[in-house]
Amino acid sequence: MDIKKIEEILKNQYKAIDDTALYNQRKVLNAFRNNNVALRHFAGTTGYGYDDIGRDCLNNVFASAFGAESAIVSPLLVSGTHAISTALFGLLLPNDTMLSISGSPYDTLNNVVNGRGIGSLKDYGVKYIEIPLKNNDFNTQTIIETIKSNNIKIVYIQRSRGYNMRNALNISQIENIVKTIKNLNKHIVIVVDNCYGEFTEKFEPTDVGADIIIGSLIKNPGAGLAPTGAYIAGKKDLIERISYRLTAPGIGIEVGSYAGDYRPFYEGLFFAPKVTANALKGALLFAETFRRLGYETLPEKNVKSGDIVCSIVFNDKEKLIDFCRAIQNASPIDSNLLSEPWDMPGYENQVIMASGSFVQGSSIELSADAPIKEPYIAYVQGGLTYEHIYIALEEVLKKLNIN
Questions:
Q1: Is 213 helix (H, G, I), strand (E, B) or coil?
Q2: Left, alpha or beta for 400 (phi > 0: left; psi -120 to 50: alpha)?
Q3: Which strand (E) or helix (H) includes residue 140?
Q4: Which pLDDT does position 337 carry in this prediction?
């Protein structure tokens, strides 16, 4: 397989990605300048973290970059799932109803919503309804009917594909459904799981009317530099409410120290538009290469990507495992390890993970993972540099004896 020919096929999409990266880089740069980021903001604090100017400024920079009124950006949020859980528990009360309009939530969030006897939303009396997507778009008529016949508090959207064979939802789709929902009931709070979607387009869900967006810093917005953490951004009153769940009612984000260096969080955000562009190109390159080898893949060549993920259907357990092992072998860290399926916490099926990354589990760095279930789909994402993605693809094709 001649990868150079694949690049030529994708050149127009690559140019569009570069245009988006330039737009987003300018947006991020302006967020830094408008908030007067200085060297003093990199210093950590201890104890309660009162007057932690690094923390407070970082919150403001993220809010500005994402077109939001306020934000919580914190290493105290251990993952995207933790951030989403914190937001939902901060906004929902017993007997409230949450409506998911993108189908079932990601595996690790399912226990948060529907778990039994583990302190889930269900255990606290929160009602839950879900509506599957229809032809990779929102089922608008069913959504309208459900909202009219139920007292919905929160509408939840998962932007990325999760472990589903679908394209990620794009900003245009999200904008259209947000307008529809707000026209029905302006008080409904729209929460978007933005993981894997940040900076893939020129606008974020908060730019088009979503009330809250949430994501992990070891994905797009951390650019492989942020060592941990997550963010929640959106309307000021809602962020304040969520902050009381993060710490304690009445305290919120007035406290919360971090003795380490804040620099990687700032620097990660600054690099994020370019690193995300590299990952987007990599997803297209893997998808088009394997498509031409006869595999079913996403994203499709002429569809705007709403996340950085490439899906490849292997229809064979061993081929799937071999692929993930080849990705691990092409990694800069732990390249000698042999990836094995295992019972990961929060997942229904065994999962195989390939992530030889500088930040453990970072999926903005080149990685691949898959649930061990039919039709045996690998989900490839990330890549700090396009050159690494290119080399990895070469080596994967060689190891799998694919010409």
A1: strand
A2: alpha
A3: helix 140-149
A4: 93
User: How many Å apart are CA 275 and CA 5, to the nearest integer?
Assistant: 23
Coil, helix or strand at residue 212: strand
Q: Which residues of 90-101 are buried (b: 16+ CB within 10 A; e: fewer)?
A: bbbeeebbbbbb
pLDDT at residue 241, as a whole number? 98
Q: Establish how many alpha carbons lie within 13 A of residue 73's alpha carbon, considering only the half-sphere containing its beta carbon.
A: 30
d(CA 104, CA 75): 27
**Contacts (Cβ under 8 Å, ≥6 apart) of 38:** none
Q: How many CB atoms lie within 10 A of CB 47?
A: 9
The amino acid at residue 38 is A
pLDDT (0 to 100) of residue 107: 84
Tokens of 351: 């999962």
Question: What pLDDT was estimated at residue 108?
Answer: 86
Low-confidence residues of the chain: pLDDT under 50: none
Give the pLDDT of residue 403.
Answer: 59
Residues constituting the chain: 403
pTM over 0.90: yes
Q: Which residues pair with 313 in a beta bridge?
A: 296, 377
Which residues, at least 6 apart from 381, have a Cβ–Cβ distance to it below 8 Å? 196, 279, 283, 307, 308, 309, 310, 363, 364, 366, 367, 368
Task: Give me the pLDDT at residue 323, please.
Answer: 96
